[in-house]
Amino acid sequence: MQTINNYDFKGKKALIRVDFNVPLNENFEITDDTRIRAAIPTIKKVIEKGGSPIIMSHLGRPKEGPTDKYSLRHLVDHLSKLLGVNVKFANDCIGEETKKIAKELLPGEVLILENLRFYKEEEKGDEAFAGKLAENGDCWINDAFGTAHRAHASTAVIAKFFPNDKMFGYLIESELDSLSKVLESPKRPFTAIMGGAKVSSKITIIENMLDKVDNLIIGGGMTFTFVKAHGGKIGSSLCEDDFLETALRIEKIAAEKGVKIIMAHDVVAGDAFSADANTQICDANNIPEGWLGLDAGPESIKDMQKVIEESGTILWNGPVGVFEFEKFEAGSRAAGNAIVTATKKGAFSLVGGGDSVACVNKFDLAEGVSYISTAGGALLEYLEGRILPGIAAVKE
Length: 396
Ligand code: AMP
Fold this sequence. Notes:
Blueprint: E1 13-17, H1 34-48, E2 52-56, H2 76-83, E3 88-90, H3 96-103, E4 111-113, H4 120-124, H5 127-134, E5 139-142, E6 166-168, H6 170-183, E7 190-194, H7 199-209, E8 215-218, H8 223-229, E9 233-234, H9 244-257, E10 260-263, E11 266-270, E12 279-283, E13 286-287, E14 292-296, H10 298-309, E15 313-317, H11 330-344, E16 348-351, H12 354-362, E17 371-372, H13 377-383, H14 389-395
Parallel strand pairs: 1-2, 1-5, 2-4, 3-4, 5-6, 7-8, 7-15, 8-10, 9-13, 15-16, 16-17
Antiparallel strand pairs: 11-12, 11-14
Helix pairs in contact: 8-9, 10-11
The structure holds adenosine monophosphate.
The site of adenosine monophosphate has 15 residues, from β14.
């Protein structure tokens, strides 16, 4: 398979699909450049090997064609600074003028094209549009894991124009490496911590994980759908009554497969969903009327910590309590600390999915985990076991 490392970029124009969908303030200044930084190694490598990177991205959700607010022009100066190169800008991502600018690029020169989503053909995965994008370059690199679950023109369809000149960038390569360490060859025991609010949004991932894990920690609001399914009293805790059967089915499958499920048996309950709620510790299946279970209790935290610390591989997706409120953050903080301890002992840990990344940042644990995935939706679909169009397009 072609890779950035083995491909000869000398004198070539390399179209790189990145995810530069960064937040801008009202003065069009970038308020968080993480996504741009993540793509720098790929761009630099192309330059180093004598190629000319041509960068393609979307920014925001422009509904009505070209809009200054969503112009990639706002990113040019910052990208120039990060690369130490004067980045050129094309006012359009396709067309004769853009083709000419692209053609005239010298080795080492960098061009960024205007927002792909100024054309509705991009999200439609229009083949003719993908062909026009392809005319700008000699090869295609996909480095946008965040949009790899979309079959858009620039993320997947364009691949057919480069049957022998397509590859992943370093960012996607490292995401796939880390995911394969977890999903394909995990060091045992493998523990998945699935938290967050609802069973309904995590059910497909949980089902897929039951084939892979040794331990499944179910935390957060999901807990109470399971507790209620067994007839427990959950007060006003979050519960999805349509999923009671599903909860029992998950437990049954887990038992058949020998997967141990760990769930809170004591909880920190609050008398309101609020930062300054009154709290009490109670049994998870005996929560008083009007109270809500908002975090794992101290005994359950100890159980979870023990399982996590003894694991060889850990996947963390979703907080185990309402970590945004100090009174209900202990479970998520403890889970995070246990992951760091396990990682120090040699475990491989992967954190992904918006809110667990927010936990890692809030509790300052980033240094102590093996890999933090940058992708939201794409990661979740990957964990569900789906084939991502942006990945398949390069591999096929
Ligand atoms: P998700 O986006 O499904 O991963 O859910 C994350 C959200 O779940 C966070 O904002 C948490 O505050 C929330 N959450 C965690 N535990 C609970 C709980 N016991 N009750 C209600 N919400 C919770």
